[in-house]
Amino acid sequence: MFGVNCLKFLRTLPNDPESKLIRFQLGKSATSIGANYEESQAGSSKADFKNKVKIALREARESNFWLRILKNLDGYNSEEFQVLLNESAELKNILATIVTTQSCKNFLIFTFNLALTYMKDIRTLSLDQLKDYFMSLGEKPFRAKQVYDWLWSKNLHSIDEMTNLSKNLREKISEEYTINPVSVDQLQKSTDGTIKNGVKLHDGLLVESVLIPTETRTTACVSSQVGCSLNCEFCATARLKRMRNLEVAEIVDQVALIDSQSKMYFNRPLSNIVFMGMGEPMMNYKNVVEAIRKITQPEGLGMSPRRITVSTSGIPKMIKMLADDDLRVKLALSLHSAIEAKRNEIMPFSDKFPLTEIMEALQYWYQKTGSVITFEYCVWKDINDGDEDIKALIKYCKQVPSKVNLIQYNPIGDGKYDQCNKQAEENYIRQLENAGIVCVVRKSRGGDIDAACGQLANKTTD
Could you point out which of 3, 150, 372, 384 has its C-alpha 20 to 30 Å from the C-alpha of 340? Predict the structure, then answer.
């Protein structure tokens, strides 16, 4: 039955690459595990077995033991396995009593990959799910609100520190749930005050977030994906393979982290948030939207949605969906050329989303929200710095209430995309203003630490 239950559980896994690997490897050995179960459990009950494995998983997860195994899977051999075992006396003792076959050893290796499922992050539960959970424990429903407040308003990262819960209740929660906060792997400071965070996720993957200070405000530039789903030629992030989408809590943690840094280094709270870090927010739509809700709701961080900008490279149906969800956030489109063929060269994926369809979605956005669209636009030497480019941009802007942010570009080392000269930039400004279009030049910030527009690629400087 244990092998059968393994197979049943595998069918509940998501369809991401890591889960596919787990499903394949564990599925192969499940039948053998079931056949050998009684032999390996001589003198031990099923409940005792499951409890021992649960304890082992918790210890392994807390010590990142499961992650080290994951990293060594491709080069797995028995010697490496023994080295890893020696790092955990508890696991060694358990294996000595319950593992008698190679298939069972394989099962345990891949069970570690499932440790985060066994020890689920409690922040994946909604308020209603928390209520159901506490009622199942015989607790009053108001406990859910207490825990929700700790998680989303206070951004607490330790169940043990939920001091308005009894010690016994905290222990019960900790037996089934954990909290997987992000951490700062490396912090870099620019000469202009910009701070770049190398943010480590619970599975060891890295993203970057940026704190951008001015005299009047501080802005958090947050990531939505590990790597990126798109292939913009000018962007360093696009050269990274998309590993996975960020979870809701991982996005909120970035904001809370930068808010604390803003208070620490600039003596004021975070004032603005832009989804302009690593990844395409619209390709992680569900989690980005839920994160925004957590950031803006009174029971969460309580920030104004009008101070949040979601930047997209242009996916029409998702722009319409964002309008329908009525989050009251601002929208920015990464445009860079209003000439179809040229934009497709700069942003190859955009050939799937014609400018006419994007404009239709933007007009829908404005009709539903009344919020002016910002066009983000880099001007590159010998690429989009001519009069025909300006005329096309003006014509495009005239179709919907909008403004233009001219973003000063920092090269990413390929020699193809270079910031235009001052004369070309001034030509853009003059013609846009003469056409009655608001134009703002966004100066580059954090270029010396690779924190500027298009530079986020998990690159560090000494």
Answer: 372
> Exactly one of 6, 208, 280, 420 is catalytic; which is it?
208
pLDDT at 120: 79
**Residue 151 falls within a domain, yes or no?**
yes
Does residue 458 lie within any of the structural domains? no
370 and 243 in one domain?
Answer: yes
Q: Is the pTM of this model over 0.70?
A: yes
**Cα(410)–Cα(349) distance, rounded to whole angstroms?**
22
Q: Is 388 a catalytic residue?
A: no
Q: Which of the following is catalytic: 6, 232, 420, 453?
A: 453
Q: Are residues 381 and 410 in the same domain?
A: yes
The answer to whether 247 and 192 have CB atoms below 8 angstroms apart is no
Print the domain residue range for 174. Answer: 120-178
> Could you report the per-residue pLDDT of 294-340, keeping only the tens digit for each?
999 998 899 999 999 999 999 999 999 999 999 999 999 999 999 99
Q: For the sheet containing 206-213, what is the strand order?
A: 183-189, 195-200, 206-213, 218-221, 272-275, 308-312, 330-334, 373-377, 402-407, 439-442
pLDDT, tens digit, 9 for 90 and up, residues 229-277: 777 777 776 677 777 899 999 999 999 999 999 999 999 999 999 999 8
Please give the structure tokens belonging to residue 170: 């905290």
CB 240 within 8 A of CB 456: no
Closest CA to 390 of 421, 435, 457, 326: 435
Residue among 451, 381, 453 nearest 416 (CA) = 381
Our answer to whether residue 453 is catalytic in this structure is: yes
Name the pairing type of β-strands 308-312 and 330-334.
Answer: parallel
**Residue at which a domain ends, from 178, 197, 213:** 178
Among 84, 99, 118, identify where a domain stops.
Answer: 118
How far does Cα 84 stand from its chain's mean position? 30
What are the phi and psi torsion angles at 350 (to 5°)? -70, -10
Number of domains in the chain: 3
